[in-house]
Amino acid sequence: MKEIPEMERPYEKCEQKGAGSLSDEELLAVLLRTGTHGENALSLARRILYHAGETGILGIHQFNLERLQKIKGMGKVKAIQISCISELAKRLAKASY
């Protein structure tokens, strides 16, 4: 597994520059917390966002638990985390202030 340079790691980047400085891949990697054997969280996040022709963060709403678990390295816990993140985003988008 290729090591991510310390200043490019999502946690460290967020701490130094704020969450707004993170890419979609980096945000998802922070939420996933860990990758899989031989793959870091950032690489896993990238594969999820662009799995099967998806177009990035907007495509994440198209995933259900079953489809998420078909992605190599995605177990039940990570699939549930992403499903809940997606639902939270939908609710935030609908909320009126």
Summarize the structure.
With 97 residues, the protein is mostly helical. The protein has helices spanning 10-17, 24-32, 41-49, 65-69, 76-94.
Task: Write up this protein.
Helix content is 52%, strand content 0%. The chain is mainly alpha-helical and 97 residues long.
Rounded mean pLDDT is 87
Structural class: mainly alpha
What fraction, in percent, of the residue positions are helical? 40-55%
Catalogue the unreliable spans: none
Shape assignment: globular
Q: How many strand elements?
A: 0
Summarize the helix and strand pattern as letters: HHHHH
Number of helices, counting only DSSP H or I runs of 4 residues or more: 5
Distance between the termini: 44 Å
Q: Report the C-alpha radius of gyration, rounded.
A: 14 Å
How many strands, what sense, and barrel or not for the largest sheet? none
Strand content: under 5%
